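User: Can you recover a sequence for this backbone? Please restate the input before giving your answer.

Assistant: Of course. Working from this structure:
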């Protein structure tokens, strides 16, 4: 019972922390009235550890009027996915299971790259990716479902052509995780739609690796069949049957196995907030400019 209670407390703390990180920037961007500013001001004055007070410029501010003025003058930009969230909350409109590459390119260009989850292999991601997207390979998607939950909705699932992204969506739906949309046509269609990407030094795509491996096994079966024993022709037949099955069902076991190969591993890049993109611009005291952040000078002794 004690272990279960500790685990439940830890999970509750993670949920609260995630909600705080996600919605605080949104609150900062609203047009607040005097009462709302007072509530934020009061909360900030009583929050934070000593290290946070030292490093966080907002917690260093001493004057309430200066705090309100700087917060009003430096709001964060409107989140790129705000229209979808408002439509979902107000009208009950479900987030579609897929979006066109054109719509995805517009959303990402408006600042929604942090909502993109790339389910390709690490080597494919290193070769070309959307800046700010999060790499979670398909074979890790269920184990890292909490990272998907922490990604702002609508969450855009991306692979090379769209098939692996759809597999990831179905796996996440089984975990009761919503707000998922597959980018139709994958990164290839996204590039054709004019979407921006970063090109690096990558390797062979998973699809090309599957074709090379299948061809090599079929050739090996033919060679062994002539040189060693006719029963080896069965290997070529097995490969052919597997390719036919993959074409009919859009499920490729060889591809899933190759995705786990060490040469397809990469640390990748996870989405992170760019400067001034996720929160209000820090007050001027963070740059060393004298302001109300500094403690008032002591009164002279009489």
């Amino acid at each position: 019972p004690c272990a279960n209670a500790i685990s439940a407390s830890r999970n509750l703390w993670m949920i609260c922390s995630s909600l705080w990180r996600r919605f605080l920037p949104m609150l900062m961007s609203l047009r607040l009235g005097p009462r709302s500013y007072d509530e934020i001001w009061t909360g900030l004055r009583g929050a934070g550890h000593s290290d946070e007070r030292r490093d966080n410029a907002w917690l260093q501010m001493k004057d309430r009027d200066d705090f309100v003025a700087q917060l009003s003058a430096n709001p964060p930009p409107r989140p790129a996915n705000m229209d979808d969230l408002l439509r979902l909350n107000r009208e009950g409109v479900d987030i579609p299971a897929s979006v066109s590459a054109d719509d995805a390119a517009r959303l990402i260009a408006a600042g929604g790259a942090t909502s993109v989850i790339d389910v390709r292999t690490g080597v494919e991601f290193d070769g070309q990716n959307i800046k700010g997207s999060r790499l979670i390979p398909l074979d890790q998607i269920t184990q890292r479902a909490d990272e998907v939950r922490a990604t702002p909705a609508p969450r855009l699932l991306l692979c090379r052509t769209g098939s692996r992204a759809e597999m990831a969506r179905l796996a996440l739906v089984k975990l009761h995780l919503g707000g998922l949309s597959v980018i139709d046509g994958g990164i290839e269609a996204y590039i054709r739609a004019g979407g921006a990407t970063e090109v690096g030094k990558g390797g062979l795509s998973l699809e090309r690796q599957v074709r090379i491996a299948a061809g090599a096994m079929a050739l090996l079966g033919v060679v062994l069949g002539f040189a060693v024993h006719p029963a080896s022709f069965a290997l070529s037949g097995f490969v052919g049957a597997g390719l036919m099955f993959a074409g009919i069902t859009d499920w490729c076991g060889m591809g899933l196995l190759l995705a786990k190969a060490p040469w397809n591993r990469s640390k990748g890049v996870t989405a992170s907030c760019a400067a001034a993109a996720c929160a209000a611009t820090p007050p001027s005291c963070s740059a060393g400019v004298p302001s109300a952040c500094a403690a008032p000078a002591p009164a002279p002794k009489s």
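That completes the design. The first helix runs from residue 2 to 28.
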